Every structure is written in structure tokens, then in C-alpha cells.
Amino acid sequence: MSETGIATRSQFLGHIASGDLTHSMMEPVTEPQVLLLDGTAVSTARIVNTAHYRGNRIDADEWTTDVFVRRGGRWLCVNTHITPAAQS
Question: Exposed, middle or buried, 88 (CB in 10 Å: 0-12/13-18/19+)?
């Protein structure tokens, strides 16, 4: 889906809208750690999930970090970063 590690919002949402990308399972492994600073929030958590991309199953154990900003009374996600969790 994103061999370069970067996907635009429209690319990502296009994969979801087309049905190319689905998830059959998504579970937190850790409680999210949230840092709140002047209308910006950063949330980090470890997540395990099973995705399906164009018929191929992908099992993942990942650390996800999401950055949110408060605009017009709403929290908007402006960036997401995913890093594979180290296997023990």
C-alpha cells in the first residue's frame, strides 16, 4: 500500500473506500500514552491488528503515534506514524 512509508490522506481513504483495505481485528496491547499541549495532542500505543489488502492478509504488531490538533471545537488527526514492534 505504501512501500515508501508515506501515504497521503486521499490515498489512504481511497484504499478504504474501494474496499482494497479492510481490518478484521484491531486490539490495543498497551493503554495509550497521551501528551496534551496547547491544543495539540500526541497519542502513542501498541496495537495488534489483522488487515486485508487486495485479498492478502497482513498480521501486524505495531506502535502507533497519532498527532491531533484542536480546530473549531473538534480534534483532527493531522499525522499518523506506525512502527513495527520489536519481537521479543
Answer: exposed
- Residue 85: which of 52, 51, 46, 50 has the closest Cα? 46
Cα–Cα separations (whole angstroms), residue 53 to 10, 15, 20, 24, 34: 16, 9, 5, 11, 30
Cα torsion through 41, 47, 53, 58, rounded to 10: 150
Confirm if 55 and 25 have CB atoms less than 8 A apart. no
Looking at residue 34, its amino acid is V
Task: Give the C-alpha separation, 81 to 88, whole Å.
Answer: 22
Name the band, by pLDDT with cuts 50, 70 and 90, for residue 67: very high
The structure's pTM equals 0.81
Q: What is the pLDDT of residue 47?
A: 96
Residue carrying C-alpha cell 473538534: 74
The torsion angles phi and psi of 3, rounded to 5 degrees, stand at -60, -25
Bridge partners for 25 per DSSP: 50
